[in-house]
Structures are given as structure tokens and as C-alpha cells.
Amino acid sequence: MARVRNILFTAPVLILVLLAIPVVAELASGIAQEAGLTRHDAAYYLDPDLVNFIRPGVRLKVTSATIQDSRISVRFTLADPAGLPLDREGITTPGVVSTSFIAAYIPKDATLYTAYTTRTQTSPITGKSAVQAGTDSGGTYTKNGDGDYTYTFATRVPATYDPSLTHSIGIYGRRNLAEFLTEPSWKNTADVVYTWVPNGSAVKTVRDIVKTEVCNSCHDPLFAHGGTRQKVELCILCHQPQTVDPDTGNSVDMAEMVHKIHRGSGLPSVVAGKPYVIIGNAQSVNDYSTVGFPDDVRRCEACHRGATQSAVYLTRPSRRACGACHDNVNFRTGENHLDLPQVSDNLCATCHIPQGELEFDASIKGAHVNPNYSSQLPGTTFQILRVDNCLKGQKPRVTFTVKDKKGNVIEVSKMASGSFILAGPTTDYKQYWSEDFRSKAVRSGDQWVYDFTQAIPADAAGSYAVAIQGYNNIVLNPGTKQEQTVRDPGFNAVSYFSVDNSRIAPRRAVVSQQTCTTCHGSLYFHGGSRQNVQFCLLCHNPVTTDSSQRTAATLPAESINMKTMIHKIHMGEELETEFTILGRNQSRNNFNEVRFPTAGEQRNCDKCHVSDSYQIPLPKGVIAQTAPRDWINPLQPITGACLSCHTSQAAAAHAATMTSDKLGEACAACHGVNNEFSIDKVHAR
């Protein structure tokens, strides 16, 4: 209907047309859902008849595999998301489905795969060749029925192969719907791994160390080699010690490669000046030297959890896995290994037991302890019990507790840091101030009472927030060579109150602690004093910039409004403009090298946002932000969010054109929930 032009409807006809729109939308939605699509899929918005015809997506399933006369055969099925069979050749159903096959086994007394299917890769840079695990070439297909095929490998297994060993077949495929879709979709790719023992006995030896679901908690989803490899169990068939990059000499073994990628900029070799590079297919150069892990890289369980063998990093340490992160250790010479050579993995577990008696020892858990989360820390816990005298013009009185994790009262006057921040209004914070409570708080039993010295502004209205931050300095392992002093901060408590006797309205929820910690593990900013995302918003508000840290030579200032700052940080290397924030002591924090876990997938707003909080129009009370370094200053509320990812001058010009000085932003006219260019539709993947 949106494309109809220059037609004059009579009133009754117009009413019928408008009434029909929800019906058409509901029909399209129903067909799309039957095809396994959601409003975040680009194909969801196709014509419903087209969706019903092509049913985008592909499902792979292996039903059996055999090895006879040294020939491997695998029987598999192809189907669309509704389970209807697909024609591999694209004759009777839309789209050719290309498939590739890997065959591998786990040798006796081994834990890693070795592939039968290999290729020889010669480097045009070094002239060296390497045999790499790969896919089969030249095999034959047999059609058993609709969507039912058998593939017989051209690769033969050795006549001496052991049929009692674990074998796996990996298949990955792509359904080519370019005739119908303007861009490829990762949902039109699929992979599957089938594991069996050729002699018919039960599978007893497996490799299950990291789950794909754990990877996807950040990567959203795994999307390697153009999207056809999406499961860890497929990746490990090729990414094992058998495969080396002949261009750089680097192994692409999963354990070594993934550890190195995730440590990235923190690798000792990278810090020393040697980039970590893998040269892949078609001589693509993949430099991981700027990767920053969003969690603490010492927290091995960030990845090693949920699988049946997740604990092998504790029970089976190896030079290849440990030396990947600690790549300044030379196991041959003993350099950085107490000068002790390590000629095999046989004795690694002798010194590196799972957990010792003390933190920071040679045990695996001990060596990976983050001091900020040491079990020796007594803990600091805050609770705001009530806020009195909190009407406009009054000086608030806050009753609160500060205790350790055992419930003992902490003497606030002895804390290394302790303060309240008061901000408002909660519709969108535009003023805040901080007061140190340590010297003036009065103890009452196990509680403390603090009277603010600054009054709430006389023109304040609505709801305000008060929050607490602070920490103690604690000595760990006192009297030993491992002695160190670390902060023991508390998780910020935030409390809301009304300044005019109106109903208390907490600040709207845009993201949650959980959505942040899904990737980050925990939030630990400004030395750990800021851990609660709702606390961060008090200072990182629309009117705050980093001007206090800038000199005349570095002005204008940069906005540190939460939505602008976080969007830009997560866009990172995809930003079209420079983004640097000057922090405390004029520290320079440039975020243009940040890599999002799945490049280009920042458009999945639900990854961080809760309850469709990214949709427009925005709630009343959201204000414009100060943005001296942006194309437009000030930035209106919706514009401020959108131009944080879409940083081009053209995008800014579009936003400026669609904003009226008198009436405000017109964004919702096109980008509203049910409109032609809704946020969901333009961000659909």
C-alpha cells in the first residue's frame, strides 16, 4: 500500500483499505513464522507468496555413514525450515544447495581429530607447502528420494585404518537464493557433524570441550568462512594440529588459534611488537593483534563451560593450549618457564594441578586468579535503606549500610573511598553531584546516616536517584612475595525517590546488567567503583562531556552520554569518524580499533536492549544531548542514538533534514514500529 501513488480514495474505500492492512501484515507474519523467520530476518519482510514459495533456509541431517572397501559414504537429507525436502540441484525446489564434506577420526590414545580429507597449500609468500585438513573433492552423489542423498567420498581411507576408532563426517552447505534475495543470509547456510564407530560399537571417545551455544553468547552467531561453518564440532575437524598456515608458519589448531585470537592485543608476542596474523583462503590477511577480549582473559570458564569435557583445561594442561596465551614461554629452552625445558605434556599436570592451597600459585585456578575477585577479599556490600528530606529545596538524608560479605559493619571513616551521587530527573538525567560520606556519616546500630550538604534544586520535578560507590584497599597474601594491595569495591546500590510527592518513577530500563555481562562477565570500570549499569547512567548522561580533561589544544569535547558512547565503542573499527574519550588524568582512550564479536551484527539491537527499548518514538522527557564533536550539536534524542552507529556526514544530513526546529524529530514517521522503514526492518539480517 505504501507504494500506491496519486489515487484519490473515497472515504468508504479508504476505510476498507486501512482495515485490510493489519490483515495483510498478519498473513505475512504468519507465513514468515511458519518458515522459521522472525522480524529480525530480512526475508520476514518479503512478499508472503514469495516466502511461501521459497521458504528460505536450509536444514542438513545425516542419517547414516559407512566405510566399505576403503570408501566413505554418508547418507543425508536436505530440507527447508518447515521440513519439506529440497532438491540439491535446485530444479524442483528453489535454490541450488551446494554441500562440502569432511571426514576425520580420533587416533588411538589421542584426543584430537586427524582428517582423512586433506589438501596441499603452497604459500606464494614463503614458497613453503603445508598439508591441511580440508574438504573432499571429486566424490559422487546418489539420489535416494526427495531431499535424500548419499555422498561417496573420492578420498579413500588407508587399508590399515582402524574401524574401532571414533569417526566423524562434517557437512556444510549453502542454499543459493540470490535469484530471490538481495543479499545472502546466514540462515541459508547449515552445518552438521555425524559421529560413529565404523565397526558398529558405541561411541566412547569424543571431543566436546567448548559448546557452540557458549560461543554464540557473544558471537551472535559463529559465522566463519562466509557463514557455512557455524558449529564448534565442525570447526575442530579441520582446526587441529594437522593444519598449519604456510604463509606465516602459525598453527590454526583450534586451541592455539582461538586462545591467541581472544588474547589478541594482550599476547606477549604482540606486546613485544610482533603482530598475530593468519593468512586464509584467497590470501586474505587476518590480523588479530587489536582484538580485546570483553571478559577477563584469565577467566577460562567464560568459554570452558557447559560441555562434557569443559574441565580438561584443569585436568589436562598442554603446551599447545597454555603456550597459546603465554606465547613468550619457550618450552624447548625453558625461557619464561623457570628455565625448565618441557619436552612433552606428560608432566604438565604434576606442577599445574587444578587448584592448590593458595591463590596466585602454579595451579591452574591459582595462576588465573584476578586479584579483583580474590577469595581473600572480605567484600564490600552497599544497601540504601531510605531517603528522607528529599523534596525540592531540601537536603536529603540517606540511611544506608556498608558491610562485608559476612555481614560485619564496615567503618566508613576508614574506607579508601566512599561517596554518594545524586542525579535527576529519571526521565533523562541532566544534572548530578557527588558528596563524600566518609567523614560525616553517623552510625546508628548497624546503619549509617548521611545528610547531604547540597540541596535539591528548587525547580526540580519528578523522580531523582541517589547511588553509592566506594571501596577498601586490601592486602592479599601479606608477608609473602605474592603480597599485593587491591581494591575491594562494592556493587553500586541505586535508589529512587520523588522530589515533588509525585509517583516514584525509576529510570527507564534500556539495557540490563545481564545483557552486558553476557559478554563482559562483569562490569568493572573506574577501578571497580562503577559496576552497576544503572549507576553508570547517572554521570554518563546527555549533558556530560569529557571537557574537564581537555585543554585548549584538544577541544572541542567529546560526549560521554551512555547511548552515544556505548554505541560508538561497540561499532569500533567500523566507525567512519574518530572516537577518543579523554579520561581521568587526561588518559587517551581511542575506541576505533574495537572489534565487535561478529562484524556487522551490531544491527541486532536485541543483543543489548531489553523489551524493545530501542523502538521509537522514545518516552516523554528524553532530552537532547551536548555533542561538540558530532556533525550536529546538540543532538536530538533519537538522532543521538542513530548517529552513534551511523556516523557518516550523509546520515547526519538526513537526520538534520528530518528534524523541525518547532516540532522536533520526524524519525517515527518512517522508522516507527509498523512503518515502511521500521528499525526492525532496516536492521533485519
In summary, what is this structure?
The chain has 685 residues and is of the alpha+beta class. Helix content is 19%, strand content 23%. It folds into 3 domains: 192 residues, no CATH class; 157 residues, Macroglobulin (MG2) domain (Immunoglobulin-like); 139 residues, no CATH class.
Question: Would you mind describing this structure in some detail?
Answer:
It is built from 17 helices and 25 strands. Helix 1 (11-34) packs parallel to helix 2 (48-54) and helix 13 runs parallel beside helix 14. The protein is globular, with a radius of gyration of 30 Å. The strands form 7 sheets. Strands 13, 14, 15, 16, 17, 18, 19, 20 and 21 form a 9-stranded mixed beta sheet that branches. It is of the alpha+beta class and 685 residues long. Residues 1-27 have low confidence and may be disordered. A hairpin with a 6-residue loop joins strand 15 and strand 16.
Count of individual domains:
3
Number of helices: 17
Query: For the residues shown, what is the average pLDDT?
Result: 93
Mind describing the biggest β-sheet?
9 strands, mixed
Low-pLDDT segments: 1-27
Helix content: 10-25%
Number of strands: 25
Radius of gyration: 30 Å
Structural class: alpha+beta
| Fraction of residues in β-strands | 15-25%
Question: Outline, from the CA principal axes?
Answer: globular
First-last Cα distance: 24 Å
Structural descriptors:
four-stranded antiparallel beta sheet, 685 residues, Immunoglobulin-like, alpha+beta, disordered N terminus, 25 strands, 17 helices, single chain
